[in-house]
Amino acid sequence: MLLHIDSSADATADSVTRRLTETFVRAWRTAHGTGDHRHRDLSAEPVAPITPAYTTLGRRVEREGFVPPAKVPALIESAPEQREWETTLPYIAELLAADTLLLGVPMYNFSVPATLKAWIDRVTFPGALTDPDTGESLLRHTRVVVVMARGGGYGPGSPREHFDFQTPYLEAYFGNLGVPPENLHLVAAELTRVDVLPQPAGLEDLAAASLARARATLTALAAA
Predict the structure, then answer these.
(1) Domain ranges for the chain
(2) pLDDT of 51-67, one tens digit each?
């Protein structure tokens, strides 16, 4: 199953990440036929931020030794905790069912959109992504393709390289979840705002080349 998540606040016409994730999806459908494709738009249907009831239940689960999701209901002690778990479980189940996770992630203020962070906080419930019998990550065989777009240039050697908190955050997050490096693909299109921002003026050719590389890389990944 392909789980396709967009987090851009822009409509498709204005969103580079939405257009690039669609590039991946079209190539994926060509390669895999009418395979199961689930699309979640975090801007149109935001994930609710976690609440004190979520963290209270999470700590109780941690004290029990990270029980699997099926055993969490037995530890719920209040109506707010029940609501938080009922909100959380579908997102976890959806992620665990995916063979490939496709994320559209524009750079907002040097990092990821709040809509995506809310989803991350929600699905990372204590123990939910770990095999309770072996301690291994349940995402160790999941392929993660992250489509990033940056209005400026943040690549290696660029003056703003140290402003990129998007790439290291996503690498650390998925690495910590047990997604092996060979299954994590971060694909960036840079200089996407050359048409409206004065600072990167004159870099139109570099922007076009970056976008073309991103499209080609995603097409190849989708076909694999």
Answers:
(1) 2-223
(2) 999 999 999 999 998 78
User: Are the C-beta atoms of 194 and 205 separated by less than 8 Å?
Assistant: no
Q: What CA–CA distance (Å, rounded) separates 212 from 188?
A: 11
Residue 202: pLDDT band (50, 70, 90) is: low
Strand-strand pairing, 100-106 and 143-149: parallel
Q: Per DSSP, what are the bridge partners of residue 107?
A: none
- When pLDDT is cut at 50, 70 and 90, the band that residue 158 belongs to is confident
Is the separation of the CB atoms in 166 and 187 below 8 Å?
A: no
Q: In what order do the strands lie in the sheet with 100-106?
A: 37-41, 2-6, 100-106, 143-149, 184-189
* Cα–Cα distance for residue pair 175/169, rounded to 1 Å: 10
For the domain spanning 2-223, the CATH number is: 3.40.50.360
Is 41 a residue whose pLDDT tops 80? yes
Render the burial of 65-96: b for 16+ CB within 10 Å, e for the rest.
ebbebeebeeebeeeebeebbebbbebbebbb
